[in-house]
Write a structure and sequence with these properties.
Layout (H helix, E strand, L loop, with lengths): L1 H28 L16 H10 L6 H14 L11 H36 L4 H15 L2 H16 L16 H39 L2 H8 L4 H13 L2 H7 L4 H4 L2 H6 L5 H10 L3 H29 L7
Helix pairs in contact: 1-14, 4-5, 4-7, 5-7, 6-7, 7-9, 8-9, 10-14, 13-14
């Protein structure tokens, strides 16, 4: 196991360098530069643009710019083109905002999708199964931003409670208990909207996988031996049906970066997705490249965790 982990970590480190260099090159080859974000600004003179290009090494070859970026990122001196503020603290602040949204949405998806999919497969063709199938396809078909706008109108119109941003304006001087409840209330609606699409899609996958496993010979043999239905479903079928989702579990980590860009924009949530969107609009290369680098790290880390969990869950897999 340890040899497998060390070998895979080394492979992923090499892949991370390749991916980061390619992403860095593609970003710089895209049309437009930071010095051209506001060319109509009367205060932006040619000599100012020249200073900006020299300060951020924009006239150097791409591999030299990549070396400067790695050096500044490792030393913590990497600064934003937009406001010259350090990149890592800005990303860390947004990460702390995105983390509770990501965790709550993930918990909602996995705790609702699996029971719905399993129950629908066990009672295939029943009223519950038909209702969940219809609801899932309806939620998949309706755009998430449209549901979010409806939720905002309903919550604000009927309950008179604000849901935009991370907290209510003017709550800074309230008691800690009220501030906490206000944060929780602002967190619930965006998390539910983020999770709805995932619940609809994942429940369909769980149902399909469970139906496939229930049709296997060993399940029919277990029933023929007189085992209780709960033992057949939860003791024999469920473990094998959930194996493909171990891989999917490892791919959750990259969702911290871009998993909720649309919902962060709609609810004015100051998270990582919104930071990436704003950085792209302003051509803030250090922010874009660092977020891309973090996303690559999370993706490679997630796949490594999936490989390890797959071997732990299924002893038939041998790690070579």
């Amino acid at each position: 196991m340890w040899n497998f982990i060390v070998r895979n970590v080394a492979q992923r480190l090499i892949l991370l360098v390749i991916v980061s260099f390619l992403a860095h090159s593609f970003i710089h080859l895209a049309p437009g530069e930071p010095s051209e974000v506001d060319p109509m600004n009367p205060r932006m003179k040619p000599e100012d643009i020249a200073k900006i290009r020299a300060a951020f090494h924009l006239d150097d070859p791409l591999y030299v710019q990549y070396a400067y970026w790695i050096r500044d990122l490792a030393s913590g001196e990497l600064k934003s083109f937009k406001d010259s503020q350090p990149v890592l603290p800005k990303i860390w602040d947004r990460f702390l905002n995105s983390l509770p949204l990501f965790i709550l949405a993930t918990i909602l998806v996995w705790t609702w999708a699996f029971p719905a999919g399993i129950y629908g497969a066990v009672f295939r063709g029943g009223l519950y199964d038909r209702l969940t199938v219809f609801s899932s396809y309806a939620l998949i078909s309706v755009p998430g931003f449209f549901l979010s706008f409806l939720a905002i109108l309903w919550v604000v119109g009927w309950l008179g409670v604000p849901v935009i941003s991370i907290k209510t304006f003017g709550m800074e001087h309230a008691q800690p208990a009220y501030q906490m409840m206000d944060r929780i209330w602002h967190l619930v609606i965006p998390s539910v909207m983020t999770a709805i699409g995932g619940i609809a899609v994942l429940s369909r996958y769980v149902r399909s996988q469970m139906l496939e496993v229930l049709s296997q010979d060993y399940v029919r043999t277990a029933r023929a031996k007189g085992l209780q239905e709960d033992t057949v479903i939860y003791g024999h079928a469920l473990g094998n049906a959930l194996l493909p989702f171990v891989t999917m579990f490892g791919l959750l980590l990259p969702g911290l970066i871009g998993g909720s860009v649309i919902f962060e924009q709609i609810f004015a949530w100051p998270g990582l997705g919104r930071l990436a969107y704003e950085a792209i609009l302003s051509r803030d290369f250090p922010i874009i490249m660092t977020l891309n680098f973090i996303a690559a790290v999370l993706t490679l880390l997630g796949t490594l965790i999936s490989d390890i969990l797959y071997a732990v869950v299924d002893p038939r897999i041998r790690l070579h």
